[in-house]
Amino acid sequence: MSVDEVIASAVDAHTLQAASADVALTRGGSRGLYVRGDGQILSEAVGNLIANAIAYSPKGSSVGVGVKAVEDIVEIAVTDRGIGIPEADQERIFERFYRTDQARSRRTGGTGLGLAIVKHAVQRHGGEVRLWSRPGRGSTFTIRLPLVEPPLDDSPGRRPRRKRPASGVGRTAASVPSRPVPNGEPE
User: Fold this and answer.
1) Taking Cα atoms as reference points, which of 66, 85, 60, 99 lies closest to residue 137?
2) Burial label, 9 (beta-carbon count in 10 A; 0-12, 13-18, 19+)
3) What values do phi and psi take at 124, rounded to 5?
4) 168 to each of 161, 173, 180, how far by Cα in Å?
5) Widest Cα–Cα separation across the chain
6) Sign of the C-alpha dihedral, residues 152, 154, 157, 158?
């Protein structure tokens, strides 16, 4: 699975949310990396991290999505300059329904399942999620997945084009089959 496609899908899905929150959404780092897995599931996992980063970031700030290969691991990091997560809550943040700030949770919505979904999706793909966070400085969630070799086909995700029958547009008279006309004479 192309990591570029996973990131593009996740970023595209949250562009409107970022614009509405007045948060810049940027993508950087390495390109052309591949992991084994389900692109939709991985895109949703990255998307959950992006959605949280936007929701917990102040207006005018930015959320970055970076990709790099470290030995045989692909790291996808989502970084914000938001409110951060207190150290006491960092161990529990991936638990289902766990919320660090109930009052803020009511304002931002959600179920408290997003990070649990991310953790389980990444684990199903043979990876892990790491967290760095400091209150008042922001957070970085890093998805780490095993790197795989790119497919032999240079065009990932593309199927070979099938030849379509000509539609008649742009065909020459010689290529148009003759058909009988009402008086039986060919055209």
Assistant:
1) 85
2) middle
3) -65, -25
4) 19, 10, 18
5) 91
6) negative
> From CA 110, how far away is CA 101, in angstroms rounded?
13
Query: Residue 124: helix, strand or coil by DSSP?
Result: helix
pTM comes to 0.73
**Residue 135 vs residues 7, 97, 140: alpha-carbon distances, Å:** 27, 21, 12
User: Rounded to whole angstroms, how far apart are CA atoms 52 and 116?
Assistant: 12
The length of the chain is 187
**pLDDT tens-place string over residues 46-55:** 999 999 999 9
β-partners of residue 131 are 141
**Highest-confidence segment of 131-140, 149-158, 162-171:** 131-140
